[in-house]
Amino acid sequence: MRLKDKVTIITGAAHGIGKAYARRFAEEGAHVIIADIDAQGGEATAKALVDSGGSAWARTTDVRSFPNVQGLMQETINKFGRIDVLLNNAAIYVTQQLWKGPVEELALEEWDRVIEVNLKGVFLCSKAAIPIMKQQKSGKIINIASGTFFSGSGNMPHYTTAKGGVVALTRVMARQLGQYGINVNCMTPGSTMSEESVSEEVLKRREGSMDKRAFRRIETPADIVGTALFLASADSDFITGQLLVVEGGGVMH
Predict the structure, then answer these.
(1) Radius of gyration of the chain from Cα atoms?
(2) Helices then strands (H, E): number in the chain?
(3) Is the pTM of this model over 0.85?
């Protein structure tokens, strides 16, 4: 098992790709903390993992609140004694009614709503975890960006800006934390069929990305979790500050 007994916090892990990360990490022996604002969904995901023989604990978490996030880190330490991996996955995307349109028509409240979760949330979770990892002199921080960072596509100025900020923050933290044995990396999944209920509109949107890829098929969570596992495991111990694109060749950089 590649993550045996590794204490792993995954934000936004009650649903979608986050849930897939949690399942794979538990299969690899990690103690998985499901940190999600959806308390009921988090408990259900944790129960499913435990019922399958894994180790999981759900902790209701609002990544917009630093005291809440600090509580998450402290309770994890109290329960497990350390934090080995932080996977910053929580984000507002199309499943949360993400506004799309021209920059000049983007409401200030909508800008703040998305930036607060998708960028500030990554900062707050990292800020709370870093002192613990520094004391350990080890740790893996994995941030989730987006291929829209490369192309500017998707008509989502606030979302794409936040994800670009995540890439920049990853690089700064990697520079600052290398001396403490902490790896900080980033990955960008493509348009992924992560919805629990697939409507005709969702299917059409996911199929729309196929023609841009070298692998001309719909991307699924199973295509992504292996990269996250690599970044969380000892296999990536000499990799930091990097952006790994997991889009089936839709973006090559």
Answers:
(1) 17
(2) 9, 7
(3) yes
Sign of the alpha-carbon torsion through 216, 221, 222, 228: positive
Quick check: is 252 in a domain?
no
Specify if 167 maps to a domain. Answer: yes
Residues 41-51 pLDDT 10s: 999 999 999 99
Q: Which of 21, 93, 159, 180 is an active site residue?
A: 159
Give yes or no for a contact between 218 and 210, defined as CB atoms under 8 angstroms apart: yes
Tell me how far apart the alpha carbons of residues 77 and 75 are, in angstroms, rounded to a whole number: 5
Please, where are the H alpha helices in the chain?
16-27, 39-51, 66-80, 108-115, 121-136, 148-151, 157-177, 200-207, 225-232
User: In the 8-state DSSP scheme, what is residue 222?
Assistant: G
Give the CATH number for residue 30: 3.40.50.720
- Tens of pLDDT, residue by residue over 128-165, are 999 999 999 999 999 999 988 888 888 899 999 999 99
User: Which DSSP helix (H) or strand (E) runs through 59?
Assistant: strand 55-60
Cα distances (angstroms) measured from residue 15 to each of 104, 130, 214, 243: 32, 26, 28, 24
Domain of residue 12 covers: 7-246
Number of domains in the chain: 1
**Does 180 qualify as catalytic in the annotation?**
no
